[in-house]
Amino acid sequence: MITQKLDISDLNPISLLAAANGEDEALNDVTSWDDFETVCGCNGVTKGTIMQAIADKNLTSVSDVTKHTKAGGSCGKCKDKIADLLSYALGEEAPTTSKGICGCTDLTRDEIVLKIHQKGLKSVSEVYQELHFKNPEGCSKCRPAINFYLNVAFPQEHQDEKASRYVNERLYANIQNDGTYSVIPRMRGGKTDPQQLLLIAKAAEKYDVPLVKITGSQRIGLYGVKKQDLPKIWKDLDMSAAEAYAKAVRSVKTCVGKNFCRFGTQDSMGLGIQLEERYEFIDTPHKFKMGVSACPRSCAESCVKDFGVIGVENGFQIYIGGKWRNDCSRKPFPYNRRNRRRSDRYLRGVS
Ligand code: SF4
Hints:
- This protein is 36% helix and 14% strand.
- By secondary structure, it is α+β, with helices and mostly antiparallel strands.
- It has four domains: 33-93, Arc Repressor Mutant, subunit A; 109-165, no CATH class; 172-237, Sulfite Reductase Hemoprotein, domain 2, CATH 3.90.480; 249-350, Sulfite Reductase Hemoprotein, domain 1 (2-Layer Sandwich), CATH 3.30.413.10.
- The longest helix is centred in the middle third of the chain and has 13 residues, at 194-206.
- The two termini are 14 Å apart.
- It binds iron/sulfur cluster (SF4).
- Iron/sulfur cluster (SF4) binds at residues 255-257, 261, 263-264, 293-295, 297-299.
- Iron/sulfur cluster is lined by residues 255-257, 261, 263-264, 293-295, 297-299.
């Protein structure tokens, strides 16, 4: 909706979901999209790539498309769109495939999320019962997914089921391609101190960590940590995780701002830390990143973040959805005590 510049000011969360769930046909009819438009956001696969693969390799099922293009291979949200493209490409020859998130239900992710909101469901077992899942206990695929949808829908009311979290979230680390894990401690706004650096350095030596790297979000990552070392390394670090594995509000990148930089107009680090503290640990439909820069040079790359802020002489400009499009929306207004609520509204709306 952001990339199509639709006016969503009159939509509430339910109607937003309804529109995303198919009631706005023009928006959701993937067959009418341009070839360059992205169908699978997780893996960056466009409609054109999928259509080409279907034609070139005679693909006939969603799993075939996933195998050859990676579309639908991560969160699975786009599987119904892939099925629509298959029907579009194959016509009557298209096989009837269940769009359900797993074998326990024929409901898609969006249908489940919409019903969670409409019926006010607050627990995993309620979802299974009310939405008539074939398996009343669910499975290892849908249980973490439902727990996640509930966390996003009702972060205050839903009792998070830790056991239903994905393995990365239970271990506070991200599994890598060789089976080891990355450990990334939280450094709000990218700010650290000698004490934290010493702890990280000691942990890297003690656990023989093969790679220590600054991440794209200005955090320090320890890569190649063995699974059995994870509880001990977190204890030694004595820091919380940056959740660099979760679909959640993630790090806020900041520039040094007016306290150090001669071009700085605002306290970007202070605002970045404030934003991170306020919204950290909130689950979101997609990983959600922010950037705060203290002048239009935008060293924190604010314009390509989900929520970006750029300091100007009389306040801040806010950029929304920059990650997905270059011409992101811009809402200039001073960010101060009086306008904090308005900024928070934008932030909540986007996340
Ligand atoms: S964005 Fe501006 S204020 Fe921030 S570090 Fe870059 S030049 Fe300095």
